[in-house]
Structures are given as structure tokens and as C-alpha cells.
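FAQ: What does the model actually see?

It sees only this:
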Amino acid sequence: MNTPIPFLPNSEKTLEITPAEVAAWGSLPPEQRPRLIDCREADELAICQIAGNEWFPLGTFPEAGERLTTDNAHGVVVYCHHGMRSQRGALFLRAQGVENAFSMSGGIDAWSRLIDPETPRY
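And it is asked to produce this:
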């Protein structure tokens, strides 16, 4: 059974976390926040991104190995454009033993609509 991590949903019940839940981390010191992984491609990253993210395109997950699966004591949230690739990324991480891996529902598009309208949409 997973040990709950503050600010993350129960990983046994859901694969997703909302943009509002991710935005709530803003008051936490960076070292206490879950990791935020952007799994989009370089051309998408050039358009917009969420501050504090780490960039690992989804296709690089298998070769990234330990860089993705270590240092996840506070959990990890993966995001993409609309939330589909990030679900695959979160499932990949869970299969590698990262129990508290989640996908941000709606991706950066939802982030722009619901949290930060200054984030460009594409």
C-alpha cells in the first residue's frame, strides 16, 4: 500500500491530478514539491512551459532510466499538451516502481485555461 504524500491524490484510486492541485504547490519550497516532468517535444516546449519543470520527452523515458525514477520522495507529475502522453508517462513510471506518479489532467492547455492565461495556447 502506498504511503500518501501531501498534495497528491491517492495513487491507488487515480492516475490524474488537476492543474489546480499542481498550482497549489506554489507556496511550497521547491525541495518539498513533487517533481514536474514535461514530456512534450522540443518544439512544444519552445512555445510555453510551466515554471520549475524538468524536460524529458516521452520517447526518452526508457533511456532516461534513473534520472526519472530516483529522487521521487515527494511524488512526480507528468504533463503534456492535453494529458494523453502524460498518462502514458505516468503509467511508465509506475511500472518502473514510482508509485506516486501522476498525469496532470488536461495538460498545459488546461493549465493555460484554468490557472495561467498568460501561458500561450497552441
